[in-house]
Amino acid sequence: MKTEVTGDIVPNKLRTLVLLGVLLHVTAAAELVIDVQGVAQPTPVAIVPFGWEGDGGVMPIGVADIITADLRRSGRFAPIAEEKMLQKPTDGADVDFQDWSFVGVEAVVVGKLLQTGADEFTLQFQLFDVFGRRQLVGYRMPNVSRATMRGAAHRAADMIYEKLTGIKGVFGTRVAYVRATGQAEDRLYSLMISDQDGFNEHTIMESKDPIMSPAWSPDSRQLAYVSFEGNQSSIWVQTLRTGNRFQVSARPGINGAPSFSPDGRQLVLTLGGVDGNLDIHVLDINSRQTTRLTTHRAIDTEGSWSPDGKYIYFTSDRSGGPQVYRVPATGGTPERVTFEGSYNARPRLSPDGTKLALVHNDRGNYRIAVMDLERRDLIVLSNGRQDESPSFAPNSDSLIYATRQGRNGVLETVSADGLIRQKLAARTGGDVREPVWSPFPRY
Amino acid sequence: MSNIKLITAAALVLFLAGCSQETIPDPEPSDEVFGPADSDASTNSMGSGDPYGGEEFGADPSAGELDTVIYFEFDSSEVRPQDQDIVGRHAMQLAENPRLRVRLEGHADERGSREYNIGLGERRAQAVRRMLMIQGVSADQISTVSFGEERPVAFGSSESDYAQNRRVEFKYTN
After folding, report:
1. Which structural domain, as residue segments, surrounds residue A289?
2. Which of A13, A232, A268, A433 could form a disulfide with A303 if both were Cys (CB 3.0 to 4.6 A apart)?
3. A196 in a domain, yes or no?
4. Which of A183, A276, A361 sits opposite B126 (nearest CB)?
């Protein structure tokens, strides 16, 4: 992997640029171009190039580069350039705190990749607090293969991030999204998955007809989605490992907006019937039994569970324009949740249950906003004209959504406080939309 | 910009051409299959000539020139007055041919949330469906599907692109 930062940027300059709101162009992935725009003060850290003990002179992947890119993309850290390092130890015993304190970093990471078999490696690293002159983390992963090496590096970045910020890292997570390419007869829709840094992009499903509304199962093993194959909407659940899929709903009229219950046994979905009255239903995946939760003749759609499983939040235009409502998951009277503005749609709760992300009409622009469920205040987080499909990271600390760049949709992430925003533009092109952040990986 | 418009216009024309083709059911087999039964028949090209100069006549039930797309105002599912005649002619055609089936495909422009836009497209398709049924078309003859903003005809983000995308298409399926 190649990490390029335009210009000769030292942490101080970086900070100034970031404070000025200047976009830094960081080529951080083969598939993605990532622009980091932050206003927070990133902490200077050093990720020393990892040692390599194995076949050939060159390490199979740049472990330090992956960790550096992860930490930089978080917007909270400013890893220093290799040229600024006065020493490049690969073992904790060789770390000279005096040197690192002189360079001005607050934390140092050193480590090694050791080959122990044809396709067996050990990845080990240590994290040090420069001012406290002590080790914060020392961790060894002995069961790494070529295929899992990037994942192990992300795992290291997650541990470093959590130790330094107190927030669980999401570098080992994935993102599912829909890509559309071509026009008219050449139109092709693809359901895609990649690592959160854009690597390891895979096509899960491809169709001439639209694909919509991907949703992760809570164990990250399956995706539910809507397909229009045969010019009719239907909902499918596909197992990622095998590629096998099964149809869970194909009733006359609309079958849309699936979302898994926290226990993974049920899907909330939208059914329209022959008369086209969209209502919220809950489908038990095993028995295929559905329970209707709303009956209003308005559009009721985009249901999603609260993390405690008690409520289903949804969009309804029963009051005129679309607003967010919630209804007990076992049935009951819907109550209105949003009152600010004329358009609030596609609610998604943060996994910690404290915030609600939605699409909000902000003076004619469709933008991503977050509502604090306790204080009830709404903060607009994005600045596009046509932003949509917000999805929380599993640590509730940031969101991913789709925005427009020219004629195409691209993905952006933003911290839940709105301070750090970054663009993830798919370099392979196409119109990218409907990103959904996976749950935490099971380490 | 004009290139884009040209391409869009061309795409629209192709698209409409595609629709009207679908609209016209295959003609009934003509009497050509009963052509001269002599042993050299296979050397005659089947389509090129009825030796008796035969040709089809009478009204084609699916009148080829009938528009198959109608457009809607922003945030509206009301069929515009100027389009009511088009819907009426489809209604007549369907009522007179109970075996004809039509799929009404509702569409929205790209603004706002995708699944909510599926709802808006469905509302448009249902408005047309009700209008057809009031005029005597059987519910069995009509199905609806909404593609929301997923199948735009115009790919830009101008008001005129949006106007082309807010539509219901008549697709004959039998």
Report:
1. 174-437
2. A268
3. yes
4. A276
